[in-house]
Design goal:
48% helix, 364 residues, 13% strand
């Protein structure tokens, strides 16, 4: 870091300033270096800067805290990225209350900004495990980066599923990167840093608390193109992520669950209040514009078949060896021209394939 950047970093580390008060200080004094040189009484003239925070800012100008933090980050192969840096993640730049600094272990690529966040309950049911695994597997196989918060339950399963499918994943922490939380995810955190990135806005050794997780959730929402809640209770951290996502003008998807399940009350409530209902990964991908041409044909084809086409499709589906045109016509008491026309539509929509010997089989 050059001197200007170091001054910014010192000011950020001086206390829990937050972006609003931080930019008020810069507006008042011109730059971070001038803020650090200011007297307490002048600092306190800025709205929101009290005696304790002003003293912390004055002390930070002579403290070596920033230099030690940078040294520790370098030792652990962690990048320290200020909001002014060119490699600061683009989706976060224009967010209100954006993080002023990010600690990043691993790499963030341009493709990661076309990602989805998958979040949900820490106490995950068998149903939640199934839908989380299904959705995460589908998007991982499409090479879509999966973002989550490394918490127990849905978050952990989403990360693991992405790694198992050799896809990228990003974990956003509610604590410093050198604090392993939850402790059982230490190895998972390291694996994520080698196949994506682990990021945090908190100093390297800061422990988590109730206030850090909502701040983490806004970054999860900000990084992702859309957020999916597979299972979540009312007022859970996952629903906070959904709220941030909606505030940022991004799509929120929720998987419906049992009306009797406490861990589905949050997702059902979101759907009732306007979230997109996630009935399948393919349906979600279609709404986000992530279906391939053939996949889109399948989605369209299944919903616009007439009775004849549906009968032919069912016949083909129930014969593992496939069927030729003449046998299909015979079984359904149709003429060849009528059968051929229906087969052509089914083939164009990607629902069936014409194999050697003019044998038709289902394509998916």
């Amino acid at each position: 870091m050059n001197e200007k950047e170091l001054s910014l970093f010192k000011l950020i580390l001086s206390g829990d300033i937050g972006s609003v008060r931080f930019f008020r200080l810069l507006e008042k004094f011109g730059d971070a270096s001038s803020v650090l040189k200011a007297e307490k009484k002048d600092l306190m003239s800025v709205e929101g800067i009290g005696a304790i925070l002003s003293e912390a800012i004055v002390n930070s100008s002579v403290s070596e805290k920033a230099e030690k933090e940078l040294e520790l980050a370098k030792k652990n192969n962690i990048s320290v990225v200020l909001y002014t840096d060119s490699n600061y993640p683009k989706p976060l730049r224009e967010l209100p209350g954006k993080p002023l600094v990010l600690y990043i272990k691993g790499t963030i690529l341009e493709k990661d900004f076309e990602s989805i966040s998958i979040v949900g309950s820490r106490k995950i049911s068998n149903y939640g495990k199934t839908v989380t695994s299904d959705f995460a597997s589908y998007f991982a196989k499409k090479d879509i980066t999966i973002v989550s918060g490394l918490a127990r339950g849905v978050d952990t399963l989403a990360h693991i599923t992405a790694l198992e499918n050799k896809s990228r994943t990003i974990a956003v922490l509610g604590n410093g990167i050198l604090v392993n939380y939850p402790p059982e995810n230490k190895k998972l955190q390291e694996a994520i840093s080698q196949n994506g990135a682990v990021i945090s806005e908190f100093p390297l050794k800061q422990s988590p608390d109730k206030g850090t997780f909502p701040r983490r959730n806004r970054i999860i929402a900000g990084l992702s193109k859309a957020t999916l809640l597979t299972e979540a209770g009312i007022g859970s951290g996952a629903t906070i992520t959904a709220r941030f996502c909606a505030e940022y003008g991004k799509d929120v998807f929720a998987v419906p669950g049992s009306i009797y399940s406490t861990v589905s009350k949050g997702t059902n409530d979101l759907i009732q209040n306007g979230a997109c209902i996630a009935l399948s990964p393919q349906n979600m991908a279609q709404q986000l514009g992530w279906l391939t041409k053939n996949e889109l044909k399948k989605q369209i084809g299944l919903g616009c078949l007439d009775k004849l086409e549906t009968a032919i499709l069912n016949l083909i589906e129930n014969d593992s060896d496939g069927l030729p045109t003449d046998l299909i016509a015979e079984k359904l008491n149709l003429d060849i021209s009528e059968t051929s026309a229906a087969l052509l539509k089914l083939e164009v929509t990607g629902l069936i394939k014409n194999t050697p010997g003019q044998i038709y089989i289902r394509a998916y």
